[in-house]
Design brief:
2 copies of one chain form a homodimer. Chain A is globular, with a radius of gyration of 20 Å. Chain A is an alpha/beta fold. Chain A folds into 2 domains: 163 residues, Quinone Oxidoreductase, Chain A, domain 1 (Alpha-Beta Complex); 150 residues, NAD(P)-binding Rossmann-like Domain (Rossmann fold, 3-Layer(aba) Sandwich). In chain A, helix 8 links the parallel strand 12 and strand 13. Chain A is 26% helix and 24% strand. In chain A, the strands form 3 sheets. In chain A, strands 3, 4, 5, 6, 7, 14 and 15 form a 7-stranded mixed sheet that branches. The first copy, chain A, has a 6-stranded parallel sheet with strand order 10-9-8-11-12-13, with helices on both faces. In chain A, strands 1-2 form a two-stranded antiparallel ribbon. Chains A and B meet through helix 8 and strand 13 of A and helix 8 and strand 13 of B.
Chain lengths: 346, 346
């Protein structure tokens, strides 16, 4: 373990709370030595980080489902790393682990923090590192519990998901198909829509940049929408509300179109469709299902291995220094699949 | 039955679809003879009509939970009347009945239509005619099933209801108290708020015309709102969403602040509170519970008779000719209690 002394840990910290889209000045860049782990701690070398729309919310002040990232703190991020030093009997050097590593090259995780950052060994034989951040990571867990627990799809239902080529959306639609539903995606651009239909096997995908979403939903959902899984908010949520079937379930998972909104969030003006159609709209936070992740991972890994479930990741190189620019791809809709920042070669 | 020939039936019909608040020109006034009933039919003399916010929606074109009133048709309205002629063995002259009578002085209801207009005998010993349109009528049914089935209150919950002095709201809050909850009302003006607290026994009532509703909800709901029963929409819905407790249920029953909105409906910009708080927002239409009205009426009648449940009706005189003006009281917040139009002395 004497090798740690020579290592420099480059970190990205939240310098100020952004107004609108985060800019480079909202971040600070620090370098720390990597210390030997104390009793019970492990040192993890970051291999890849998950970049998620939710990160934008964590940067804001105020009450939410988890505390905001404090000013001056290392930016929160989930990731995959390799244990390089350990004084915790449950982890050995060389183990591959997932955890809320943060945007940094090395994370030292004490015994008391292991549960808070969800430190867990992962098996590289089941899926690749990017897949462990995607379909077997929080996006996959979000899709699994959001669709199945909150959306309550029944065979034959029409399930619509926005952000269909994104991390959560791709698994939502494929899982809907596996459960016997029709899956209709909404995504931006013909390349994403073609991927969603041809590669992922959705029944249809609506290009919101080219089409009137409301009219296209009428075409593709002639019996109405039974489950709408919303990742985007704004006008697309309104278009979906206008097309609900009776007794529909709307899963509120995210609202990426609104996260950088400087004025008021655009509320869904068609919300009275909930009354007309006796429908419900319900929010979900994936962390509530943490005790059941193993069950979901086992099921999704089975689909992955049998080829019934495909995944696509958009892996950006450049290490932690590239984090500020890479994050913006999400809000510009430039990522194609789950956005992953590669921090180190394994 | 020979007396029917001398009767004139004054009616109010929908002449055109209103833009914004209905004006007198949106109505037409007709007079018809009252014909002898055919086999299976009854003739009902209208005593009182229920004036409801939902009427505004029925005047609009387009898909909703029931078809719109057609142009030239007698305006739809629930009411109480007395059978004056019958060729239906289930009803005798003199029986008091409730039905969707329409805004007219006499309704002839054929056997085939009896179920569609929900023709039913009522017992005047249980409650007064206005009470049969209020707590034992559709407002009471809406409060009962909306609160208990959709709102799912548990003892100790904080239940907030808007339109608290109105037809639905008054029963929602009192029923919440009966079920062991704290009840906080929102109403317009100090007289209504005083009534809601002192007469109906709510724990508190917020005067939205005098107070910042968001701040007042913070004061009166220190642990957050477990059930919010919304009759109004708009800014008050947003204020309630901002104060939800974890796992809250929002019952969407109406949106009176938006029914005459000429531009876009104001969508709830705080809807992401559903995600943060793992809450749900669900619409309800009382007609779905029609088969269970007898159970609800029995329970509510018991509370009425024991004095645990109070009711207040705002009875307007003037007959069907007064309908257009009387209806507007609802949208101006001028009614104090369930708005009833008296059509005839019994």
């Amino acid at each position: 373990m004497s090798s740690l002394a020579s290592l420099a840990n480059h970190q990205v910290r939240l310098a100020r709370r952004p107004a609108g889209l985060p800019t480079r000045d909202d971040w600070s860049f620090t370098t720390q030595d990597v210390a030997e782990p104390a009793e019970g701690a492990v040192v993890v070398r970051t291999l890849a980080l998950s970049l998620d729309p939710a990160m934008r919310g964590w940067m804001n002040e105020g009450r939410s489902y988890i505390p905001p990232v404090g000013l001056g703190e290392v930016m929160r991020a989930g990731g995959i790393g390799r244990v390089v030093a350990s004084r915790n009997a449950r982890y050995a050097p060389g183990d591959l682990v997932s955890a809320a590593i943060g945007v940094q090259e090395y994370a030292t995780i004490g015994e008391a923090d292991a549960s808070r950052v969800a430190l867990a060994k992962i098996d590289p034989r089941i899926a690749s590192v990017p897949q462990w951040l995607n379909v077997l990571g929080l996006p996959g867990m979000t899709a699994y519990f959001g669709l199945l627990e909150v959306g309550q799809p029944k065979a034959g239902d029409t399930v619509v998901v926005s952000g269909a080529a994104g991390a959560v959306g791709q698994t939502v639609g494929q899982l809907a198909r596996i459960k016997g539903c029709r899956a209709v995606g909404i995504a931006g651009g013909s390349a994403k829509c073609e991927f969603v239909v041809k590669e992922l096997g959705f029944d249809a995908c609506i290009d919101y940049k080219a089409l009137d979403v409301k009219a296209a939903l009428k075409t593709h959902c002639p019996q109405g929408i039974d489950v709408y899984f919303d990742n985007v908010g704004g006008d697309i949520l309104d278009a979906a509300l206008a097309r609900l079937a009776r007794g529909a379930r709307v899963v509120i998972c995210g609202a990426i179109s609104q996260y950088n909104n400087m004025g008021d969030v655009k509320g869904p003006k068609n919300y009275m469709s909930l009354l007309v159609n006796r429908a419900r709209m319900e929010g979900m936070v994936v962390f509530d299902y943490a005790s059941r992740y193993p069950q979901a991972i086992a099921e999704l890994a089975g689909y992955l291995q049998s080829g019934r479930l495909k995944s696509r990741e958009d892996v950006v190189a450049g290490g932690v220094a590239a984090f500020p620019e890479a994050l913006l791809k999400l809000f510009k809709g430039e990522n194609f699949g789950k956005l992953v920042l590669q921090v180190a070669e394994d």
